[in-house]
Amino acid sequence: MLRIGIPGRGELVLEHVVLDFNGTFACDGRVLPGVVERLNALAGDLTVHVLTADTFGTAQEACRDIRGKVVVLREAVAGPEKALYVEKLGAAGTVAIGNGANDVPMLRRAALGILVLGPEGAAVEALQAADIVVREITDALDLLLHPKRLVATLRP
């Protein structure tokens, strides 16, 4: 669990990190450098959940070294399914990380939504739904590994 006090906004008590797979921390079905190590470091404090439509059919194998759960989504339109997943975990204790239009509902529902621009870019709707925008997935994960950076970004 991560407890992060943010002046003027209160305390975030995070138990889960929910990530979109392709476009957020993988490109063309391959995990980007530095992700596995950071997610495994976070797994000591947060439960890691990877949500994917598995467009390239590689997610399970690509995530085999990550200490977390990989969930292959069933619906063709994944946004509502991702939001429901976050709600079931407890949105107030969840940070969501994504980049696409189908990530908008989970970014809005989670206590903290982080948008990753990444190699695929990001949907404008997702940008508007996020609390924080970062260039790369490693930047997003580093915010959670070094919470004072979150405080500096979110405090009024």
Describe the structure.
Helix content is 33%, strand content 27%. The mean pLDDT is 94. Strand 6 (47-52), helix 2 (59-62) and strand 7 (69-72) form a beta-alpha-beta unit. The protein has helices spanning 35-42, 59-62, 79-89, 104-109, 124-129, 137-145, 147-154; strands spanning 2-6, 10-14, 16-20, 26-27, 30-31, 47-52, 69-72, 94-98, 112-116, 132-134. The protein contains 7 helices and 10 strands. It has a 6-stranded parallel sheet with strand order 7-6-3-8-9-10, with helices on both faces. With 156 residues, it is α/β, with parallel strands linked by helices.
* Succession of helices and strands: EEEEEHEHEHEHEHEHH
Count of helical segments? 7
Overall number of strands: 10
Structural class call reads: alpha/beta
Give the radius of gyration: 14 Å
Largest sheet, in brief, is: 6 strands, parallel
Classify the helix fraction into a percent range. 25-40%
Mean pLDDT: 94
* Parts with pLDDT < 50 across at least 5 consecutive residues: none
Strands ordered across the widest β-sheet: 7-6-3-8-9-10
The first-to-last residue Cα distance is 24 Å
Strand content: 25-35%
**Broad shape:** globular
